[in-house]
Structures are given as C-alpha cells and as structure tokens.
C-alpha cells in the first residue's frame, strides 16, 4: 500500500467521524428539543413534583442543555447508551446487543442471495441484450422493485405459512428451542433458526436483487463498449473469456461497492420486514421503542444504525480505492 | 509474394437512413516485408476495411462481395473459431485509440502474460521471460511490467500495445492511427520504434492514418482511399514526388511542411459524396479542380499508369501538366465558389484571395487585391514582413506604437487538493506552476504562435489572455489597462474586443441552440436590442467565414454540420462582435486534413482584413510557421525561445526548440530529420526550478544549468532564447544528460 | 456525412420562423415530448398516473361508501368481513343478511374495502408528487450552486450530502413521526430533508461537466454574466435530469409512505394503501386468506411505483442513450 492510499484512508476516516458527529448532534437536538417532554409517557399524573424531579435527575435531564450535550457525547463515545424506559432494569446496550446479530444474519443472508442472483442475471442480460429473456427479466425485476416488501412478505406468509403450512410465520424460533441457545453459535447451528430465516431472507432478496442486476447489466453494456474489450476481441480471446474475464471483472467493481453500501442501508431498511416477520432485530426494537416512547432505546437504536451506515460508507470508499488502482492515484492524476 | 490479397471487397452498413457502401470494391495486395500506408480522410472506409479483414465489423456491417486471401487461405470461408485462432497469431491489430486498449484495473505485465499464456501456449516462466523481452524490444523498462496503465504516459501505453501486438510473432501487423493524439516528440519516438522493428523483425505492416507525413516516415508503399475506393497506389518515393491522382495532389499540398514552407496551403473544399447513393461517375469529381464533363459520367477504374503504380483518374495521362497547375492554391478555392454557384444563385462574393505564389494559372483567375486588403496594407504597413521586436515596445515609422497587449512577468499557479475539504478527501495539497514569469507584447494585426508539448502551459496562457483565468502574479495590459482590475463596463468592453476560438468545434457550440441563437448571443449580451440589426450582422459574419448562403445555416443545429463547417461557425461567433484580439487554441487539430487549410486560410485572411491581433496555440510547429509572424516556444510554463517565425524555425537556438523541430514529421520520404536527442516525458509542473527547467531532459546540459537561472539572450532579429549555451556560463562543464540531473535543481 | 448533405440540400429562404425561437422553456418542453414519444413505457407510466389522478380527484363520486365509516345492514348489524360479491356463493350473502354491493368486500369492522382503495389513491399521489417536487427542487438547486460556484459553497453542500447519506431513511421517518403528529406530511418532510442527496450529487457532477464545456467558456468570453450562464446555458441541460430524479422520487415516496403507514405511523383518519395493508395484517387477514383485502392495495402501490420507474427510465433513455444501445 503506498502513501497516497494511506492518506486517502486517513482522510476518509476523519470525514466519517465528522459526519457521525453531525448526525449525533442532530439526533441530540431532535430528541431534546422535541415538542413533547421526553419523559411524558414515563411520568404519569400521580407523580409528585419531587418524584418527577428525581426522575429527571436520574436521566440527567435537569442539567443545562450544553452540559447534557457534553455528557451525551462522552457517553456515546464510551458506548454507554443509558437505561431503557420500557424494559425495566435493562440497559439499552443489553437490548441492542441481543438484536444486532439477528439483524446482521438477515441482512447478510439476503444480500448474499440477492447479489449472487443479481450479478449472474446482469451478465446474462447484457449478453442477451435485445432478446425476449432480457425483456421479461427486466420487467420482472422492475416489478420486484416496485412491489412494497411488506406486501410481498405478507403474500408469501399467507401462502407458505398459512395456506400450505410449510414454513414458520414469525420470530426466530419457539421459546422452548430459543431457551436452549446459550450462545450465538448455538443459534446458528440450529436448523429451526434457519427455517425461520427462509421467508424473510427470500422476501428481502427478491427486493434487493434488482439493484445489482440492473447495475451489473448497465455496467456490462458500458464496459463492452470500451476499447480494451474490443482489444480482447481483436486479440482472439474466446467470447466467454471476453465476457467473463475482461468485461464482467471490470463491471463488478461498482457492484461490490454497492454491496458494501447495501449492508449499511439494509440494516437500516430492514425495519419493515422485521415487523412483518416479527424478527427480533434492531428495526423491530426501534419501532417498538418509538411506539412506547422509550426515548433512550429509540435514540440508541437510531445511533447504532447510523453508525453502521457511516462505517459501511467508509468501507465502501476504501474498498473501491483498493480495487480500482486508478482511485488511489486520482489526486496525482488531477495534475496536468 | 503477397501475404494479404484483397479482391473487390465490398462492405455495407445497414443504417436507419439506408445502406451505406463503406467499402466499395477495394483491391489491395500487401507483400511480405512490405509496409503499406493506407491514407484517407475520416469516413473514407479505411477503418472499415481493417475491421473487415479481421472480421470484427459491428453488428450492422456486412461483407457483401469480394475475397480476402491471407497466405493462400480464403479468410471469408473460415469458421468463427478458425478466424479467432488467426487473430493476433497471424494478424495482429493495433486498434484506433489504442491508448485506452489496456485494461485499467490489471497490471500491464499481467495483461501481456495472459495473452502469451492463453493465446500463445507459453508456460508461466517462459511467458514472464518473453514479456520482459518484448518490453525491452519496444524500449520500455521491464520494471514497468508491474505497473497499471494509468501509471503510464500516452507514449508508454502505445509502446505496451505494440509489445502486445508483437507478442505472438504475427506475420502481419495492422496499425490504425498509431500516433494520432500523441505529442510530437512521443509521436516521433513511436514511429522510430516502428521503423526499427520493421528492420529488425522484417515485419509486414499495414498502417492506417490520415497523416501523410507519418506514412512518409515509416512506409515504403502507399494506398490512398477516397469514398470507399482506392484511388491511387504506388511506392512511397514516386508517390510523394509525383502524385498521380488529383486527390493525392490536394492532400499533399494541404499539409504544412516545415522543410518546404508555402505561402498558401491548399484546402480541398466540399465534402465526400454520400455513400448511400454514390455518384455514378468519379467520386472525387465534385471536389476536383480538374473536372471534365466526362468525369461525371464515367467511373474511372484503378489502372496501371506507370511503373508499378495504379491510379483511378480519367486524366491520368495529363498528370504532368495537372501537377504544375495544382501548385496554385487559388485553383482549389475556385472549385469551392464555383460549386456553390452551381448549387444555388449567390450574391456576388468577394473574389478569392490570391496571394503571391505560382502564376502558372494566371489565366484562370483574376489576381485582384480587394480594396479592403490594400487599405489594410497601408494601415499596418506590411507588418508581417518587418522583423518585429520580440519583447519591447515597437518603433515604427519613427514613433512608438503602443502594443495592443502586453504580458509582464505573468505567472499562474493552481492549488490542487489541500484545504479542509482536501484533507477530508485525503488529497495532499500541491501547487501546479502552470505559467511562470512570461512576458511578451502583441501589436494590432500581428500574430503570435505559442508552441510546446501538452502540459507546457500554452493553453493556460491563452485563457489568461482572454481573462477566463486571472493571473496569480504580474500584469496583463490590454490597451494599457490591467485585466486584473477590470470590472463592469470596462470588463464588458474588454469582452467585446477579445475573443477565443476553441479546439473542439463539436463542443464549442451549445448543442441546444440553433446557429443563429449561438451567433446572436454575444450581440444580445452587448446590448444589441434591434433584432433586424442582429440578424444583419450574423448573416454578414457567416458570409465572411465562407458559409454561404448564410441564410441556410441560421436554423441548423450544431450536430447537423461537419467539423469544418462548425469550426467556421465558431470563428464567426468569435468575430461577430468585431473584436480586436483573437486567441485560437488548436483551431484545426480536431479537423480532417483536407479542410484544415481552409479554416487556417480563412482565419488568416480575416485577421488581416479586420486588423486582428491573433495568438495561435498549437503543438504543430509547421502550422504556426504557416500562420504566425512570431513564434514563442513554451516549456514548463516558461517561454524558452521567441522570435520571428522563420528565425525560430530555421535558426533555432534553444535545445528544446531544436528537439521539437527535429520531431516534426515531414511529408517527404527523402528528407531525413535531424536525430531527436531528447526523450519523451515532461516533468510534472509541481516544482519550481532554481536553474533551467529543461535541464532534466536537455542533451546539452551543463553544470550551470542545475542551479543558475539561464539568461535571456536576444540577437539582432529580436530572436530571444533563454539558455546558458549562449551566456557567460557557456563553458561550464558538460554533464551526462538525464542521469546526473534527476534532482537538486528544484526548490 | 449525411448531415452535410442535408445542409447543402436545405432550401434557402425558409428560415424565418424557426431559428428565432428556441427559448429554454421550449427546449425543455421538446425534451419532455421526446421522452414520451420515443419511449412507449414512459407514456404508459404517464397514463397510469393520469388514471390514478382522475380517480383521486373524483374519489368521493366514485367510491360507493365512506371509507372510514363501518357499515351496517338494514337490521342495524355491522357488516363485518363481507366477501366480495363475485366470491360469495349465491345466496350466501343474503342468508347472512348482507346485500351484495361490495365489490371488494368489507374489513373486519365493516368498512368498504373498495371505497378505501379509491380514497387511498389520494394520499399516494399527494405524497408522491409533493415529495418528488421537493426532492427535485432542492436537489437541483443544491447541485447547481455546488457545481457552479465550487469552493466553500460546494464543500458545505457536499458535506451536508454526506451527512444525509449517513442518516438511515426509514428510521429517520419513524423518529420524525414520533415527535410530530401523525400525518402524511412527515414522509414528505423526511424525504425533502434527506433524499435530495442523490439528485444533488448527480446534478452537481453534471454541472461540473457542462461548466467546463467550451460553449460555456465561449459565453463567458463574450461577457455573459453568471446568472445568464446558469439559466441560459446550464439549467436547460440540467432540468431533464431533475425530471428523471423527480420521477424516481415519486416512486420512492409512494413506497415509503406505504411502509410508514404499514408500520402504524400514519394518520389513522387518512386512508392510504399502506394503512389498509396494516389494517389487514393486524386483523389477521393473512391467516384467513382474505386475498381480496390484501392484494388490491399492494397492486395499486406497485402500479403507481412502476409508473414512476417507467417515466424515469424514459428520461434515462433519452439522456443516456448509451445505456440502452443495442
């Protein structure tokens, strides 16, 4: 790795930190300056003034706003997200760390399926451009992108879970089974868990495959127009080699970046599907926390999702600069 | 024994507007060990011919008739797989734009080795060894095998592509425009490589180009293509000395030639015929100055016209006399006007300019100088002939004439990267010293050429002159007023008086505007409220630049015009406000050779008529010699030599100027260029030099050059060169070029 | 070559009418016309929007019942879970005491599903078009300013875009919905605040390209002012791109609104298709296989979203023909 790339990574890292700082500041302002009292749902009318004050003090809400902000930043930096309102006695971190793995499993499995199908489908469509296969395929993909995921999930549920009773309808496993999972590893080894994952994974993959497919297709068409592809043809390489080794390899780069970005955005975007399938992940917790006015939890979940997105955006930039030798040197190339 | 033999080949393209006969009955033989140059302007079918030979025609292209025999094999009968095997092993092709032919995300060495292993059957070790040998062969450092294409310069990429083409030892190498878009010095070196390889490997080469001087350098035989046909075929020597087809004659005289400068270049006016409905007679008839009635009816065949040479012209018997007549450029212009008269009635146009030169055809045209021109001559007193002062003010007729434009120690720096944003993006701050302390003056009616390799700062200078950029240091005075301080009305007034002509005519006009709209914009900006007056001025200007009848062009969009026509519109837009000063940045580099001269002639004529001061920016010294009174040579943002054109070209002082001149290909195979003594590769302009900026590449480098600023030495012809060779340090000890001068002279 | 021929053959004289026109608005109109003339799918998308817009306008006239009022039969009982008349066995409805007037049946508390579907088009189109307009306008302005002026303006705006890219979209809307009263305008607000980021970036890069083109330099050399360059030279080339992103934004807005309503963060007094699906989901329509309730709202969402896609792709094809070239 040369110095230019090291500088690039450092710069990107600082930039990501700054973005994160702005986001948490906005989050702070949103939660503290909101029209409703953050403890409104917690404090009921029977509370005395003293009780109320004590409660405010417990959550640090009696201090001046500036001081609250400093404390808030320091806490975030140490990953202390405070206590929940609604799950008595549990800290926000407890709840979220139980949710996060489930969200990650769902995200990764669905993205894996989606990108495998999408990349291959994109190559096939570029190779068969103008054919009936391409027209039907593109229309189908557009339809999957236009259909709301929760609706597709509902339809799949009603067939596979309720009509044909092939697959479980909700959650990650019955309580009796969950009870026996002591570690994440146990969970991952359990066929019950995987059976529960099939429907949500499939639903998400159906939606997510459109982006890599359309991206791969247009990248392929663009790359196939490039002079170095013409050169491969002139050099007498077989058509297969031209398509796969030269064209697809180059067309893959932006798709890999999209995948990295996709991990971040899916973790934030799975909210709806997690609610359809009662999947105990970050998204469902966020929705519940907001419904129950559990501000520390909502704020914590939001922060965690934003953190993951910013981090994956950072990784995507770095990945691209490593995969494409031109990017790392872009600073140099600007001189002319 | 011919290795490639093409017989009556016809290739069609199916387009929405009909079938285009891109190649129409071409027969061509390439003998073993021969180097054939295929010349023609764009659209004549030369690239299609190449694609047909290796059978990579686009989807809508089809070979309809003919035969292509390669080493006795009928290539059109081969299966796809057999054809594929033939490619690169037998026939290697260097495609057009081969600069982009390397995969950007793979190391160049791996691409070469992949080729050797997949197509050549080499094992890993043998492939590595062969790859290194090949890099050696084309003059690339073997360390470069590990580099990515973006780390290569243009010339290095071209060498790498040549290495790839030679990898499998093909019997025939076809190169499509191998040096187009390269800087002269690089171009020279690539041609050198090709020439050496031809001799070393006894290569059979077919070279496709629009540039006849390239052919003169590396080919021993020539074929000229026009409108899908071959119109002349001959050995190189006789071809360059006595072309046997009027089109070849025109082409030859359309090229500026440093060795044999002419007063007026020939412009082959008009356009090639529409190949959807080719004319029944001679295809060149419409543009031919020697056309007879029979030319329109009889389609001339490619026939033997002499010792081993073929031409397709009905008047090939009279070539001797025609050649003499063709010397006169006015003859070729006559065609243009005559042709428009045939097409539609015209208002009486100013008669074509006739400036000196051959009187052989005195009977054909009337050599009348227009009144305007004589007035011009009187007013500016034959400025182009008197040796002007290079740097200072001008003494003329005993009184000092203030210059129109004066550059005083002007510098331009750019900062890239850096700042908070740059830090966040991960860019390091760098300063680019684009222009460093340049000074010159320009008087009304005078023309100055700025030359140098790309990256030397000549375009930046052009932008400074028209205030598209502001100088970092120094003063630019226009009619005595500093450009830096101009605002509001002064600025608007300056904008009216100075104009810029762009390199790429296809981008210089708003694609969404009709030509009328584009031309009327400057008038609107400058407060011409009366629509009729604007229209009047636009028509008058279009007429001036020879777009006639002007009314036809008003409602056209840029995409409906050819490059040559567009460049005339660009010129018209620059002149519509009647400016005093014009900067022309590479005005013809994007255009076909046959129309280049037309643009240059028109620009030159109008500059004289309107008393314009003109700055031409070009990498092409022969062009500047043709158009400019004075030439300035720039290197890394500095003017290293400036003086009257003929002085700079014929008596160059600075080693860099000498190198540039040596690198210019001459369209004559008998003229041997002086050897080029420098290597390609302008250093990055991100450093300031203590000594001479050229020291790193200079073949005559001395110790003084490293840390002492070279003096500006001016001779009695106002010819200035900035070099230690002529100053007090001229006896400083010599250094070995390159090696010892790598660093130490930067700040 | 062909064009040259055209020019030469062009009849001189007939030139007065055409060349004097060519205002920016006219060009824009022509580009839009070209999109729908060339791309039949884009035209189809436009028709879909037209039909739904008509339905939305005339909703009270078309819908047979009020979408929110539970319906009672003649005996005063709630008409719960009535089947569509075309699904019910003959006589079944009458035996239950129902009239056979429900094209899509009723919900579990006796609301008319068909009427809800008709009224749902109102919120979908309202959200879709207002959010798209907000996204396109903000994105275009940001892109123009950042691209044309560069420097610190560019830095500030593009860092803001980075921040917007770092904020998770759906969670953001949920949080917004928690603090403001439930309303479809939350979606519009959230989209306006966040989704200008893509449009802004793309338009900025396009402005950077156009700004560097020779014809813009030519205008500057002729003395054109910044405003003239932005509005006469750059904006007309940019606006089709805004339309492109606007069309896609319509689609995203409709989808997002549906998702948010489905999660229960919409105004319970405004009928939307997402709300209908949430209603169906929570009242266990799935287990009963009440497809007449589940499928129609989803189809409507899909159709309107696809209409946005089709139009967007139509613009893409005209603006970037390379992508689709055969």
Following the backbone from N to C, one meets helices and strands of chain C in this order, namely HHHHHHHHHHHHHHHHH
Secondary-structure-based class of chain B equals alpha/beta
Total number of beta strands of chain B? 26
Q: End-to-end distance of chain B, in Å?
A: 61 Å
| Residues in β-strands, percent of chain C | under 5%
Indicate how many domains the architecture of chain C comprises: 2
Binned, the helix content of chain B reads 25-40%
Question: Summarize this, please?
Answer:
The complex is a heterotrimer of chains A (336), B (747) and C (326). By secondary structure, chain B is an alpha/beta fold. Chain B is 33% helix and 21% strand.
Written description of the protein model:
With 336 residues, chain A is mainly α. Chain A is 76% helix and 0% strand. The two termini of chain A are 24 Å apart. The C terminus of chain A is likely disordered. Among the domains of chain B are: 251 residues, 3-Layer(aba) Sandwich (Rossmann fold), CATH 3.40.50; 79 residues; 30 residues, no CATH class. In chain B, 33% of the residues lie in helices and 21% in strands. Chain B is built from 25 helices and 26 strands. Chain B has an 8-stranded mixed β-sheet, with helices on both faces. Chain B has an 8-stranded mixed β-sheet with strand order 20-21-22-17-23-24-26-25, sandwiched between helices. In chain B, helix 4 crosses helix 5 and helix 20 packs parallel to helix 21. Chain B is globular. The N and C termini of chain B lie far apart (61 Å). Chain C is mostly helical and 326 residues long. Chain C has 17 helices and no strands. The relative contact order of chain C is 0.14. The N terminus of chain C is likely disordered. Chains in contact: A-B, A-C, B-C. Chains A and C meet through helix 1, helix 5, helix 6, helix 10 and helix 12 of A and helix 8, helix 9, helix 13, helix 14 and helix 16 of C.
């Amino acid at each position: 790795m040369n110095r230019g790339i090291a500088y690039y990574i450092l710069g990107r890292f600082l930039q990501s930190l700054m973005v994160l700082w702005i986001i948490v500041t906005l989050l702070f302002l949103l939660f503290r300056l909101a029209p409703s009292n953050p403890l409104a749902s917690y404090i009921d009318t029977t509370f005395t003034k003293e009780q109320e004050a004590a409660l405010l003090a417990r959550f640090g809400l009696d201090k001046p706003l500036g001081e609250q902000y400093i404390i808030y930043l320091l806490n975030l930096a140490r990953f202390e997200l405070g206590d929940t309102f609604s799950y008595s006695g549990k800290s926000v971190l407890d709840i979220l760390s139980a949710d996060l793995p489930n969200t990650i499993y769902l995200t990764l499995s669905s993205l894996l399926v989606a990108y495998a199908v999408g990349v291959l489908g994109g190559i096939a469509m570029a190779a068969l451009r103008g054919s009936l296969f391409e027209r039907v395929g593109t229309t189908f993909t557009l339809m999957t992108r236009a259909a709301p995921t929760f609706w597709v999930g509902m339809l799949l549920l009603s067939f596979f879970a309720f009509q044909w009773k092939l697959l479980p309808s909700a959650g990650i496993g019955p309580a009796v089974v969950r009870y026996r999972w002591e570690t994440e590893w146990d969970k991952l080894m359990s066929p019950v868990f995987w059976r529960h994952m099939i429907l949500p994974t499939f639903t998400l993959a159906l939606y997510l495959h459109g982006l890599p497919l359309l991206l791969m297709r247009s990248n392929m068409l663009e790359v196939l127009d490039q002079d170095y592809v013409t050169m491969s043809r002139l050099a007498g390489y077989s058509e297969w080699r031209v398509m796969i080794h030269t064209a697809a390899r180059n067309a893959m780069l932006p798709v890999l970046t999209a995948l990295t970005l996709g991990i971040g955005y899916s973790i934030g975007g799975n909210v709806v599907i997690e609610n359809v399938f009662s999947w105990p992940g970050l998204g469902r917790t966020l929705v519940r926390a907001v419904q129950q006015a559990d501000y520390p939890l909502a704020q914590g979940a939001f922060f965690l999702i934003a953190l993951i997105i910013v981090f994956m955006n950072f990784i995507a930039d770095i990945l691209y600069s490593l995969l494409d030798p031109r990017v790392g040197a872009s600073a140099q190339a600007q001189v002319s | 024994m011919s290795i490639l033999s093409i017989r009556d080949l016809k290739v069609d393209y199916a387009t929405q507007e009909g079938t285009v006969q891109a190649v129409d009955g071409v027969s061509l033989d390439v003998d073993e060990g021969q180097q054939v140059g295929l010349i023609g302007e764009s659209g004549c079918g030369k690239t299609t011919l190449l694609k047909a030979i290796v059978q990579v025609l686009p989807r809508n292209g089809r070979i309809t008739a003919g035969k292509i025999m390669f080493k006795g094999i009928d290539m059109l009968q081969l299966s796809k797989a057999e054809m594929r095997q033939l490619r690169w092993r037998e026939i290697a092709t260097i495609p057009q734009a081969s600069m982009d032919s390397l995969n950007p995300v793979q190391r160049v060495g791996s691409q070469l080795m992949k080729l050797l292993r997949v197509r050549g059957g080499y094992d890993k070790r043998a492939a590595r060894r062969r790859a290194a040998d090949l890099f050696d062969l084309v003059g690339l450092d073997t360390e470069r095998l590990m580099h990515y294409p973006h780390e290569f310069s243009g010339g290095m990429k071209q060498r790498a592509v040549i290495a790839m083409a030679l990898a499998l030892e093909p019997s025939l190498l076809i190169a499509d425009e191998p040096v187009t878009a390269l800087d002269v010095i690089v171009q020279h070196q690539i041609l050198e490589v090709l020439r050496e390889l031809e001799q070393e490997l006894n290569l059979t080469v077919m070279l496709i180009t629009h540039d006849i001087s390239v052919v003169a350098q590396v080919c021993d035989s020539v074929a000229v293509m026009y409108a899908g046909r071959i119109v002349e075929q001959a050995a190189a020597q006789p071809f360059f000395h006595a072309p046997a087809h009027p089109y070849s004659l025109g082409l030859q005289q359309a090229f500026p030639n440093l060795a044999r400068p002419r007063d007026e270049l020939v412009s082959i006016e008009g356009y090639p015929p529409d190949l959807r409905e080719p004319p029944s007679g001679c295809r060149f008839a419409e543009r031919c100055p020697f056309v007879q009635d029979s030319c329109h009816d009889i389609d001339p065949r490619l026939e033997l016209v002499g010792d081993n040479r073929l031409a397709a012209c009905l008047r090939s018997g009279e070539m001797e006399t025609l050649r003499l007549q063709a010397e006169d450029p006015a003859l070729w212009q006559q065609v243009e006007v005559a042709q428009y008269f045939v097409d539609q009635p015209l208002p009486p146009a100013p008669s074509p300019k006739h400036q000196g030169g051959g009187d052989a055809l005195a009977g054909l045209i009337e050599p009348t100088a227009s009144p305007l021109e004589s007035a011009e001559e009187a007013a500016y007193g034959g400025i182009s002939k008197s040796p002007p002062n290079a740097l200072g003010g001008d003494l003329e007729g005993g009184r000092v004439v203030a210059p129109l434009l004066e550059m005083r120690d002007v510098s331009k720096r750019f900062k890239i990267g850096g700042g908070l944003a740059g830090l966040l993006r991960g860019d390091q701050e760098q300063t680019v010293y684009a222009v460093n302390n340049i000074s010159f003056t320009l008087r009304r009616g005078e023309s100055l050429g700025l030359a140098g390799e790309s990256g030397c700062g000549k375009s930046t200078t052009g932008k400074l002159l028209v205030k598209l950029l502001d100088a970092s240091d120094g003063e630019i005075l226009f009619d005595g007023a500093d450009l830096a301080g101009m605002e509001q009305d002064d600025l608007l007034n300056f904008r009216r008086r100075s104009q810029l002509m762009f390199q790429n005519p296809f981008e210089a006009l708003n694609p969404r505007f009709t030509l009328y709209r584009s031309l009327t914009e400057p008038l609107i900006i400058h407060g011409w409220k009366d629509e009729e007056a604007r229209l009047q001025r636009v028509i008058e200007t279009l007429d001036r630049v020879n777009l006639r009848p002007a009314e036809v062009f008003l409602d056209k969009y840029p995409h409906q015009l050819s490059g040559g026509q567009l460049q005339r519109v660009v010129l018209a837009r620059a002149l519509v406000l009647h400016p005093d000063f014009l900067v022309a940045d590479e005005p013809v580099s994007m255009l076909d050779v046959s129309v280049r001269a037309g643009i240059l002639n028109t620009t030159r004529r109008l500059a004289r008529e309107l008393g314009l001061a003109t700055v031409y920016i070009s990498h092409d010294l022969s062009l500047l010699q043709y158009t400019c009174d004075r030439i300035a040579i720039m290197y890394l943002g500095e003017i290293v030599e400036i003086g009257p054109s003929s002085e700079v070209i014929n008596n160059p002082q600075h080693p860099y100027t000498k190198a540039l001149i040596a690198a210019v290909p001459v369209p004559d195979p008998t003229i041997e260029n002086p050897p080029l003594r420098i290597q390609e590769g302008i250093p990055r302009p991100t450093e300031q030099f203590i000594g001479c900026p050229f020291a790193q590449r200079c073949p005559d480098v001395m110790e003084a050059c490293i840390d002492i600023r070279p003096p500006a030495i001016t001779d009695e012809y106002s010819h200035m060169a900035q070099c230690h060779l002529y100053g007090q340090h001229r006896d400083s000890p010599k250094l070995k070029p390159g090696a010892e001068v790598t660093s130490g002279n930067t700040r | 070559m062909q064009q040259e021929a055209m020019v030469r053959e062009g009849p001189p004289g007939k030139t007065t009418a055409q060349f004097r026109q060519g205002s920016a608005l006219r060009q824009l109109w022509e580009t839009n016309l070209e999109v729908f003339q060339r791309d039949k799918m884009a035209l189809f998308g436009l028709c879909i929007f037209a039909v739904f817009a008509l339905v939305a306008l005339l909703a009270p006239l078309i819908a047979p019942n009020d979408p929110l009022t539970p319906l009672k039969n003649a005996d005063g009982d709630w008409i719960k879970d009535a089947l569509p008349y075309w699904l019910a066995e003959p006589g079944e409805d009458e035996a239950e005491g129902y009239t056979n007037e429900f094209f899509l049946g009723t919900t579990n508390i006796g609301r008319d599903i068909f009427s809800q579907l008709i009224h749902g088009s109102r919120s979908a189109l309202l959200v879709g078009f207002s959010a798209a307009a907000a996204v396109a306008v903000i994105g275009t302005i940001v892109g123009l300013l950042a691209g044309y002026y560069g420097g610190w303006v560019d830095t500030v705006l593009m860092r803001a875009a980075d921040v917007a890219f770092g904020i998770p979209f759906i969670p953001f809307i949920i949080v917004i919905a928690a603090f403001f009263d439930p309303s479809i305008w939350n979606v519009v607000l959230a989209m306006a605040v966040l989704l200008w980021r893509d449009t802004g970036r793309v338009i900025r890069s396009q402005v950077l390209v156009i700004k560097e083109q020779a014809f813009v330099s030519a205008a500057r050399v002729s003395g054109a002012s910044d405003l003239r360059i932005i509005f006469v030279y750059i904006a007309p080339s940019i606006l089709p791109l805004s339309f492109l992103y606007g069309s896609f934004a319509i689609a995203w807005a409709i989808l997002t609104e549906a998702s948010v309503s489905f999660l229960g963060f919409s105004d319970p007094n405004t009928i939307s298709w997402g709300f209908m699906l949430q209603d169906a989901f929570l009242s266990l329509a799935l287990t009963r296989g009440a497809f007449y309730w589940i499928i129609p709202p989803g189809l409507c969402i899909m159709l309107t979203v696809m209409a946005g896609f089709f139009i967007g792709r139509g613009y893409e094809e005209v603006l970037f023909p390379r992508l689709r070239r055969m």
